[in-house]
Every structure is written in C-alpha cells, then in structure tokens.
Here is the input.
Amino acid sequence: MALMTRYLPLVALLFTTIPAMSASPLPATHLSVQRTSHGVVHVRADNYVELGFGLGFTYANDNLCQLASQIVTARGLKSQFHGGDAEIASDTFMRAELSDRRVTAMFATTSNEARDLIRGFVAGYNRYLSSTPPAARDTACGTAEWVMPMRETDVYRMIAAKAGSAAQFIAPLVDTKPSLPQISSSGNARDRTPPAEASNGWAFGKDATASGHGLLLANPHFPWSGENRFYQVHLTIPGKLDVMGATIAPIPVVVIGFNRDVAWTHTVSPADRFTLFRLALDPKDPWTYHVDGKPHRFVRRTVSFPVKGADGRLHRERHSVTESIFGPVATSAQLGLSWGQGQAFALADVNADNVGQIDTWLAYGKATSVEDIQKASKTSVAMPWLTTEAADRNGQVLFGDFSRSPNVDAALLHDCQIPTGNSPMPVVLLDGSRSRCDWTRQQGRSAFVAGDSLPTVIRSDYVVNSNDSYWLVNDTIRLPRGAPLMGSYASERNYRTRAGLAEIRGQLDAGGSRPKPPFTPDLVQDILFANRNYVAIQFIDDILSMCRNESGGDAKLARACSVLSAWDRRNAVTSSGAVLFREFWDAAAEIPNLFTIPFSPDDPANTPRGLRVNDAEVSTKLRNALEGAVDKLDSNGIPLDRPLGEVQGIVLKGERIPVPGGPSNEGVLNSMQTTPVAKDGYTPVLGTSYIQIVGFDDSGPVARGLLAYGQSTDPRSAWVSDQTRLFAKGELYHFPFLPAEIVADPGYKVVTVPDDPILRR
Here is the structure.
C-alpha cells in the first residue's frame, strides 16, 4: 500500500507549467484559496480574519445545509420552522442557558486571534449566501426559508454547546417544576447513555519507528452525518501559522492535525464532566432550598418564542429553565430525578463556560514539539472531553488526558457522595445541602482539576488510547492514579484497547532481528485496514468447540458453525461470517459469568479470556445467542455467509458503496457502528471518519489519510463519494503540505473568492 514517494510531485514541477499561486482577485487582500484532490481546502492569508473568511466561504459551498441547520438550532428557531416537543426543548435551552449575553461574555476571555477567526468565518459564510443565488445552492436547502445569515453569537453558542455537557440533558432541564414523577425501574443507565464518539490515537517515538522520527495515527470514530462531521483544511498565515488536518464547523481552527514539527489527535476521555447535586427543599416551600441551613430561592429563566403548530400556523409559547447556585434543575422519571418530597436535583457542568479550546488548538498549530503541546494543554485545561496523543519530528510522543473534570478529590467524594443504589441515575450524586460539597465554588480552589495534576507522559517508544482511561497507554507502564472523577483505574480495558496493544506488541516482539524498529506509515495503514476482529480471534475457537460438542442433529446450529468455521475473522468487505458473528456477539457479550479467566489488573491486555463453554448454563446461553442470530438474519433474508460489504454499505449519488469495519465491542480497530440489521442490511452511523497517518523527515511532515464520508454533503459535488470509495478499498492518499506539493497535486485548482468589506479593514 505504499504511496508514491513524497518527492515525485516536486520532480514533476520541472516539467509542468505551474498555475499562478495567487488565487485572489481582491486588490486589498492577500487571501488565497486553493483546492487539491478530493476537495481539500488550502487557505493562505495575511491575518486571522481573512483566514476565517476563506474557511467559512468554502465550507458553505461544500456543506451549506449542514451548517444552516446548526444555525437554526443555535438561534433557538427549530420550533418556528419545524415544531415538535424536542424542538421546543432545544430552543428553550439555547435561549435560556446560552443567551447572547452569556456566550459573548465567554468569548471575551479568548484571544483576539480566536475572535478574528470567528468573525472572518461568519463573514465568509454570509458572503457565500449573498453571492450565490438560492437556485445555485444545495437543492436540499437552497431555497428553504430557514437558511439565513450567520451571526458571531451563533458560532459562540454552537462551540459552547459542543464543549458543555448540559446539552445531553436538554429535555430534563426544560419546564421543570415541583412534581412527583413516577420513577421508572425499567432499563439501566447504560441504555440511556448515548454512545460516545470512539477513536484510536496511536503515537510512535524514535525507539519504535524505522525513520527515527515520530509517527502518528489519528483515527477518530465520529458520526457520518450531523453537526460533528469533519472537514479537511490547511490554514496558513506566513510566519505565524501553517497547520493542516480536520475541523468540525463552525470551529475555525484545525482540531486534529499536524504542522512541520508535530502531529496530534484526540480520543474521547471517559472522565466525568458533571455531577448532580441533591438539594434539600424547604418543607413549606418547594421553590426554596437550603445550603448550610441558609435559604436560597430557585431562579426561573423564562423565554418566549414562536412555535409552528400542527396546522402550520405560528403561535408564541413561554418555556423556562430553573436555576440553582449549582446549575439548572433536572427532572426525569426515566433517570430517577424528581422535584418534590423534600428534594430536587441540579446539574453542575464543569464545561459550562469553557471555550478556551479554540486558543489551545491554535497553540497546537504553532507547536514545535510534544512538550509545547503538553505545556499549552496544562496551562489552559480547556479540552472539554478529549484526551490528546501527539508525536513530533524529534521522535518523542505524548499522551495526556488534559480534559476538564470536576475538582473532586477523594476526601470530598468520601464525605459528599450520596449512594444511588439501584437507581438508574448514571452520574455522581453529591450532597447539595452543604457548601463543603460544592466543587463549583470552593474558595481558593479551581472548579476543575489543575493542569499539573492531570495524567500525562512523554516517551520515546509509544502511547495509545482508544477511549479508555489514562491508566494503561503503554503495556510496560501504569500512570499514577489521578483524581477520582478522571476515569476508572486498574479496571478492565475495552476490546479496541486490547487489540491495539496486541498489534503493537506483536510487531515489537517480532522485530528483534530487524536492523530498524518496525513501525512505518505502511505498517500502521496495514494494521488499521486489516480489519481483524479481536473478539473473534480470542473466542472463536471456544465457539467452534461448543459447535463440535452440540451441533449434532441441530441443523440451525450446524449452519451457523459451518459459516463461522470458514470465516477469516476479519471485518473486511469480503469477509463471510462477520455479519453472523455481529448478531451473535451482541447477545453473547451480555451473558453473566462468561469467561474462564476473569479480568486481572496485573494482566489487563490479556484478560478476561476464555469462554466457559464447558459450563452447561453458559453453553446453553451461547447456543441460544447463536441460534437467535440465525433467526434474525433469516427473517431479514440475509444469508449467513453473505460478505460484509454486501450487507454493510451506504448509498451516495445513487451508488451503493460497501463499507468495511466492525463494532467497537468486537475490538475492530476500524470501528463502524451501524443501524440495526434490516432487510437492506446495515447503514453506517458512526465510526472511522477522518484518518491521518503522519510521519516526519528532515523537511517536515509526510502525511497520508482520507475523510471516509467525503468533504461535501451536497449531492451535486464531486466530493460526496470519492473518498468513501477509497475507504472501501483500504486506500489512503498523500496530503500535500508544502507549497510545491500543493500546486503539483493532480486535483489542484484555484478558488475565486468574492470581495467583501471585512477583507478591507
């Protein structure tokens, strides 16, 4: 899978007429925008306003409907255009909790550069609207009444909502009032917790790479649709900033990327971002609660806005959020949160006013080493819910969980935590009747864990993370225990973590006779796209053993066992048996007392292991799970041995494209979460999205990758399905970073950007 050598494009320049580098027809600005293959955007400007303008203009061209829909949400106008209870709750939250005044105050704490980028992004988006007739826009929304110009406060609100945690609880926060909801005992917290975006972040140092430089794999597993789609961009201000990678609009900086000296990525940290406080109500007045015996009144924030009724007509409604000194009050029968019988519950979010990640990412883009990344992260502590993995040209690598977490130490937790027993409540519950327990406002104490206390390490071999806690990022070390809410410690690892450690250790252990350490970009790409199913590799022999013992006379079980026996234990598009195993493991993974060897903190990379197929009860449940999988596929008309690519895929521009990868809970590094199986198979929902594999040579970065779902959501665009077809084949392409590489790229073209008054200030 080796790419063409980096310097072939430079040689080609000697024999090719080079288009002019200046794209701008604007007499008063030096803004220049180019595109390279697959629609990748390169913006070069003299200042941050121009840089943001170029990004905003091109993003609108590629993903107008995506961003226009976010603006409607951010401004609290979903009810006006669409109606519905969920829309009313969203509008109430945005207007009451993230008002223009509040988000403007948040961003007043950011740098001039961050605010200039946002100002330029807004102007670029609006210039696209004003210069592009509705009929020439994406047909999905081009003439829709809800497509409107953007305001800077819209961007502020969108970024704040992404960083905060309260947006996960919108419905429980809206229109709360004293009542006695019936607490549901059905379900469990896991069922109600939305699946976290998953990711793999691998960084290899000079002791593990053939080049002696750093090497990074960024493999975030984010949604394939909606507001968290990535966008590929290269942002340059000569002498100040030169960074390439991916962002999520309307964030106007590279969030996962690389520059000449360092590359970084993120995974989702399992640390807690918020707690609930149980409030002690006044016995005579449920609108009053007591802290240290002193009364406090709830504050009701009421907003009014137009709502589209079932008849299509607009009418105004009033809705509210109720605030305590800890945060907004939440009520939910499903979560066991009531307001009455002497108690209420308030949500305290450590990221409620955190927008400092924009400046942190700017600092990443200017970094020259992993030490710079570490320093910027520890100083700001502004990563809302992300860990960081990085590698630099000097061959050093970094892991850090620099995410913001409540500053709750062991003593406070022991003193203040309220047991929830069998309650479905999914978060830490603290005593809100005592100021001692209020981590949000302790005198002389930060509300979040300080940077110097966050788990981090710099090494020269490797660090990895796949959405697990900081405890195990290299199988030869254990990071010290951090604050209690920073994540579990000495606990069972997920299967992707184990798969990654097994792959890396296997290469390092097999490399004793090699003249150089094993890791190269080609090897990392091969491992990722091997699509090995770690759970199957660990347990399929036990399943087949059960088959041999029990399938006699059972035609259904015999069919299943025959397919699994022939399966290559991968989730490639050609793999026959992956679909059957997925349906089986979904049920089998929940069987109690499943493993012969339980988890051991002394051997976390290899335990638990072995299935208890010789236990009659476990064996019966495994058999039932396998036969249930057969029934499910039969009922949907899917042959048990149908190749994965014929079942799992996506239709783009009228073409069905097979999609490789498998569920995270099967330990498939190339993770792909899908809709439940149906007659038309699986449709990708969340999984491998942006990929970058970045190494370094003496000149700078050598990068390859792709954006699995493509650069554009406009069905007319050439960049809707091109990269998905590459993804189906396990192919990556070279990312042109140097100026000569950009103009030599076969897809190189200049983007004409219209003039705008903001560019002349």
About this structure: Residues 279 and 432 are 5 Å apart (CA to CA). The two ends are 48 Å apart (CA to CA). Confidence is low (pLDDT under 50) at residues 1-28, 180-196.
